[in-house]
Prior knowledge:
The complex is a heterodimer. Chain A is mainly β.
Amino acid sequence: MKILVINNDGGGFADYIEVDDGTTVAQMVERQIGSAKPSNYLIRVNRQPCPADQVLQEGDRISITPTKIEGADVSISAAQP
Amino acid sequence: MAPDDRTLIRFAIWIHEQLSARRPQISHVSPPTARFAQVEALHRRLAYATERGWRACIASLQSDLRSAITGLGTALDERICRFDEDKIDFALPTARGILDELKGLRDEFDSVEFDLRQKQIRITTEPIVLEELSLGPFQIELDFKRKSNGLTAGYRVIAIEPNPAASNSSVTHPHVHSDTLCEGDGHMAIYRALASGRLYDFFMVVANVLRSYNPSSPHVSIAQWLGIKCEGCGDTVREDDSSYCSRCESTFCGDCSNCCNDCDSSFCSDCMSSCPGCHERVCSGCLSECKGCETEYCSRCLKQERCNACETETNEESPDGSDDSNNDTADSDKCHAAI
């Protein structure tokens, strides 16, 4: 089945990916963040908080957003590529 | 249907229209023109060398050309990947998708305002506290009237109960200056979220940048937020009112720093000395030793590297000392006469 994964860590990419039926949120998060701590991320499925063992469904939207995103004193105007 | 939901639907349709009307942007994936040019140049040189039969040169150029073509291939592969990423990310969301984004915001944040008249979405964060420094809540104002860089909206970050840095009232957060967020690591995530209409992600990322502190690159560090501590008296002062000691490089308030009368540089009291001749405060670098008594004096109190006392003593020791110049004049006159 296909789900939309939005990884707001780094590049902030959104991508539709194929996953096996029965894949849980925890498994998907581990696949995306590797060895990083899941507690350092806000995980949302269809923009709602979710338990780690929730099974993903076809068409789900899962977003992974770091709780700490470091700003920097650089002259980057808002929303400039 | 609640009136609030109707507003959301109208707003979602309006945002969708704006995104649909947006002109397609040139992809950020630029062609590897420099590498193309390098391959072409090497190819021309190889043809020239081959024509003239320069064997050693041909071997070297063949190797260079092979490396250049390999580099070009790698660059093209990289661009294909980036092109695919851009293509997916900038897909146009449906009005239904945007409505879900707006509803998600309402669920995620306690305070959300959808202002269709002003074409703004405003969310207010909880009071932000960074390393025990309370900065108050911030409003993230996404304004669809502010279009920039091909995006349909721009944004501001406004301190609701500002606790600005003592040294700069425009800095309301270590990473916010004049209501503009220095996005740092969140830059691409913010840009992509806005470009693809993922408003929920946009607000989540901006809010999390506000909740974080990067000590290596703030406008004003948290340590200096309330001002700078004077190393002399311990008082806290604005950065503008402080000065550095040119010798020990510590920071001092105006009362604890002094200006050297000779070189005009700032020094703390410990790094200043007093000239025994005029009793003026000068830095140790501006004191010079008298050749007579070896005491250190400021430049104004030394004449021909001697202090007043030693100079007078020298003059008294040679009774005709004051007439030396007269003798010189007499000698000079004799010379002129001889000529």
